[in-house]
Specification:
By secondary structure, the protein is of the alpha+beta class. Among the domains are: about 140-235; about 245-330, no CATH class; about 355-530 and about 540-570, P-loop containing nucleotide triphosphate hydrolases (Rossmann fold, 3-Layer(aba) Sandwich). It contains 17 helices and 19 strands. The strands form five sheets. The protein has a five-stranded antiparallel beta sheet. The protein has a five-stranded antiparallel beta sheet with strand order 10-14-12-13-11.
């Protein structure tokens, strides 16, 4: 009996060793196979996309502007475009060349790596887990206490800021003081609210129990709770007038008291006095007519669209007699227009799956800002960009196919990716501007500028060579496979914001008020202007690069006209 048991034990030990050996061999074989496949893909990619392949274009490049439609209807001989070989024979296909299939497959992998370069690993928003903490950190403002917070009926009705990674008490205080508010409130560890009135309902101190995302040991509110600080002492007199912006001289509305909800009559009225008064009343506009000061918003009665001659306002901005009669001076106060800042997810799943498609650097993030504030609904994204999520684009974390967002950002241009959507807004920007914007984003994030060293590096020519063809192929493939398209040019959107935004909102089947659109116009830039030193008269494009890009411009223009869309703006081709 003992002998049989010993044999069984020996067999089991051998079996364990054998299983271990087979498992190790299986893993090694899989690793070798993966490496071999990777090598083959790289070799095939280098052989399958030779550097002298590019889009076919019309031969007539002596023209400076966009070619005429009659020329496009009977195109002449085609050229293949590349930095090193501009006179190779071309493929016969006209608007969607066969080479784009392999080209897009290769570029798709490249751009995904670049897109997620600035994507940060995010910590989940904490709503519990901290006991009541003391306000041990030293802050310049005065702690007023813990108060209840209702996102739908806010007491702090001024500006709102989000930073789901780096929010601190000092950052919130400075942001509110900079905009002339008296109080700063923090909630959920990452949200900052500004206002001039304290919340009415106080809460228990221990209910403000969430640590600030960017500052350990400090409290930034709680779940539906605000940690409120007084920042009146931070508003130095010099700072109060620093962020007041002169909007111009405008014709005064017929009934000022009906148009503006707050007013002040003051002898020797100054811009600072009127701006301070309107800031405390939490209005974004300060309007001066003689000794009268009015506060309010841009409305249909007072849309701020057509200014009058500045000489009609006496040519001075500080004297009490600066404006009178039918004209008035208008100033933008530091207070944010909050009539259009409320956003939410769709309450029911959208029946129409809409894409907001663009080439990188074409203003997709800015367009999302406009759409969200105009419609009141979040936009989604095919990608996850932690930096954008931290700044308040909450649709970034929502699955892109959830249909809980009004539209979905995408830079993809493959047939499969395009046909997933029922319709799309196709945003097109001048390729020269788009390439520079995307290169800036790659090296300095969404709001920074690349350095001189980056522009002078070898990667800039390689970047232009690869991404210029992508700019063209992106438009061509959406024109070919898109089911229902609204083509919007970035330049037209900037120049005629409200008319173009109306088109986009109607395309999304959303009804908005005129006042909400005026609010969007008042907040048109959001937080999306690049910071840092911008080089004046900076020209990073060589003549070879221009020749390459110009040929792509002509090809895209031809394709747009072939689909009965308006052609590209003439400014796209440098003169």
């Amino acid at each position: 009996m003992a002998k049989a048991f010993f044999r069984l034990q020996k067999f089991l030990r051998r079996t364990q060793f054998l299983l271990f050996f087979l498992t190790a061999a299986y893993l090694m074989a899989g690793s070798l196979l993966l490496l071999q496949r990777t090598r083959l893909v790289i070799q095939q990619g280098s052989r399958g996309t030779p550097t002298n392949q590019a889009l076919p274009v019309p031969e007539e490049m002596s023209r400076v502007g966009i070619i005429e439609p009659r020329t496009l209807q009977s195109p002449g001989p085609r050229l293949l475009v590349h930095m090193d070989a501009l006179q190779e024979p071309a493929l016969d296909q006209q608007h969607s060349p066969h080479w784009l299939v392999s080209r897009n497959s290769e570029l798709r992998q490249l751009r995904r790596r670049w897109f997620h370069r600035f994507t940060s690993d995010q910590e989940p928003l904490q709503t519990a887990g901290f006991k009541a903490m003391k306000h041990t950190a030293e802050h310049k403002g005065t702690y007023m206490g813990c108060f209840t917070h209702d996102s739908r009926e806010r007491t702090l009705k001024g500006a709102v800021f989000y930073d789901l990674r780096k929010m601190t008490v000092a950052h919130c205080q400075e942001a509110c003081a900079e905009r002339a508010y008296s109080y700063a409130g923090l909630a959920y560890g990452a949200e900052c609210y500004c206002g001039n009135s304290l919340p009415a309902a106080a809460a228990k101190p221990e209910e403000c129990n969430i640590e600030c995302k960017g500052e350990k040991g400090s409290v930034c509110g709680g779940v539906s709770r605000l940690s409120v600080y007084g920042v009146e002492e931070l508003r130095a007199p010099a700072r109060r007038g620093r962020n007041v912006i002169y909007r111009g001289c405008f014709r005064a509305p017929e009934n000022l008291t009906d148009t503006f909800p707050a007013s002040l009559i003051q002898p020797n009225l100054t811009v600072e006095m009127c701006s301070e008064f309107c800031s405390k009343k939490e209005f974004p506009l300060a309007v001066i007519r003689g000794q009268e000061c009015y506060c309010g918003y841009p409305t249909r009665r007072f849309p701020l669209r057509e200014g009058t001659d500045g000489l009609r306002c006496s040519g001075t901005r500080n004297a009490s007699s600066a404006a009178g009669g039918q004209d008035c001076l208008v100033y933008q106060t530091p207070v944010q227009d909050t009539r259009c800042t409320d956003r939410k997810f769709l309450t029911t799943k959208s029946k129409v799956f809409v894409a907001l498609s663009s080439f990188p650097g074409a203003g997709n993030t800015w367009a999302r800002h406009l759409i969200e504030h105009a419609t009141g609904y979040y936009t989604g994204s095919y990608y996850f960009d932690g930096a954008l999520y931290n700044k308040g684009f909450k649709g970034e974390k929502d699955h892109w196919r959830s249909r809980r967002t009004i539209c979905v950002k995408t830079h993809e241009s493959g047939k499969t990716e395009i046909e997933m959507f029922d319709s799309a807004i196709l945003l097109i920007r001048n390729p020269y501007k788009s390439l520079m914007a995307e290169f800036n984003r790659k090296y300095a994030g969404h709001l920074g500028y690349a350095t001189d060293r980056n522009w002078k590096s070898k990667e800039w020519p390689d970047f232009v060579n690869s991404y210029a063809s992508w700019w063209a192929s992106h438009v061509l493939e959406w024109l070919k496979y898109g089911k229902r398209l609204l083509v919007v040019h970035y330049e037209d959107l900037k120049q005629s914001l409200i008319p173009k935004l109306k088109e986009m909102v109607e395309f999304l089947n959303v009804t908005v008020t005129e006042d909400r659109l005026l609010c969007v116009e008042n907040n048109r830039d959001g937080n999306f202007k690049r910071s840092g030193a911008k080089q004046k008269n900076f020209e990073p494009f060589t003549q070879e690069m221009k020749d390459l890009i110009n040929r792509y411009i002509l090809t895209v223009d031809e394709a747009l006209r072939g689909r009965n869309f308006s052609g590209l703006p003439r400014e796209y081709v440098p003169r």
